[in-house]
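Entry 14. Ran structure prediction on the chain below.
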Amino acid sequence: MRKPFLAALLLAAAASAAAWLMWERARQPPQPPPKQVTVIDPNDRVAVARQERASLIEEKYHAVAVDYPGEVFIRWLKHEAILELWARSDAHRRFRLVGSYPILATSGIPGPKHREGDRQVPEGFYEIIRFNPESDYHLSMGLNYPNAADLVNADPQQPGSDIYIHGSNVSIGCAPLGDEAIEEVYLAAADAKAAGQTKIPVHIFPARMTGPEWEAFSSSEIERRPELAEFWAQLKPAYDSFERRRLVPEVEVTPDGKYVVPNP
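Output, structure tokens:
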């Protein structure tokens, strides 16, 4: 009788221990699944930029109450050597300034670009038409220079080309922002395009076209080169319109190569 009783006692103890173990496990909070580690190809500059800079540019958007990536507008101010990134969440809101980035090198003088090799930064109304993730200058975005106005006013045979916003700190006729800054601007523009923005405008002005500094700067330059007066008078309505409304104005080009803002 003692052996069956002992066996039963052992079975009961084992069952009790198993039940206690199950109860203890049930008490423990569920463990999260192991994190998936994404391996980034170090040669994929956009992927590396996204890993290192995406959260930073998104924070800049959120700081001005704009949903990322929104709709993007870029303004390039030659005299101040500043490139501004503007954005808005939808077509019914005004643009807000997300960031201002120093242009680290520049060339040429005030005024438009007229020919290949003149070292000039263009002035006028452009858009981004290409993204180069394997640029010699880290990342780059190409503009549609020469545009319709340039094709009338610039050298008909060699008007020039290859105007970019890019990384690094050297350039002739372009806007080098440094590698970290171009990563932010590149991601914002590329993501806006991927989200459905069909045209990313880039307006290039000789300077901030308001205030005493502009009056002094423009008067001095026009005194030396009177032809700038008529050209800058074509740019100013678009500049003033954006300053007043924070909306990107429509700009048209007349058959004789002049810029016109139909509804400033």
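The helical segments are 2-27, 45-63, 148-153, 179-194, 211-224, 227-245. Will compare against last week's run tomorrow.
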